[in-house]
Structure prediction request, 233 residues.
Amino acid sequence: MRLKRVFLALGSNLGDRLQNLRQAIFSLPPLVLPLRASLVYETPPWGIEDQPRFLNMVIETATALQPLELLHYLKSQEKQMGRHEGVRYGPRLIDMDILFYEEEVFSEKELQIPHPRLHERAFVLLPLHDLIPQFLHPLLKKSITILLKDTDLKGIIPQTLPGGFQLLPYDGWYNLPADLRAGLENSAAAAANFYGLPPSHRQRWVNHVQEARRPETRRQRIEKMIETLAANQ
Prediction:
């Protein structure tokens, strides 16, 4: 099953906010693979002003889950972290929202994609702009850059992460050879298993592919790699 490209917004304004973001991201694999992360921003509360400031960010992910499956999975991860439902727009330990699911438009009572209020929220648009500035909103037909120009950035402060602080379990996805990455993205099981390997094991697979001198040999090695990884359930 092919992986889908999905962008998620994360926010926290209770407890150790930065650690909450990290814990949420690290909880996502193997069903959701975090690939890239925006900067982290401290932002004023939205909706209800009398509450602590938030840390917000956006991550690019890959998943084979369908939209409603993904929503339920994210909510289950929030609950496992200790989130309790409270006042809408109120304080929260962690919040994960689906912003875009590739370029699809999805509308049911439980979930709307694109997120129906993302174009109003600077704390979402600014980190989205870090990742996909030219992406066109499927409904509004405007880029993230254009949408961001119409929002108020007052009070939003980029954060410097502590030295060595790691927000992603693995940040080398887009450094993989394009043909190898394409093969993995066509097999959710293989991609999840590759993503979860120790760094030395991942590099061993990459080296095995790159050592092939003939295109046909390289193709065969990638196919065998995908088959082997997908079988390791």
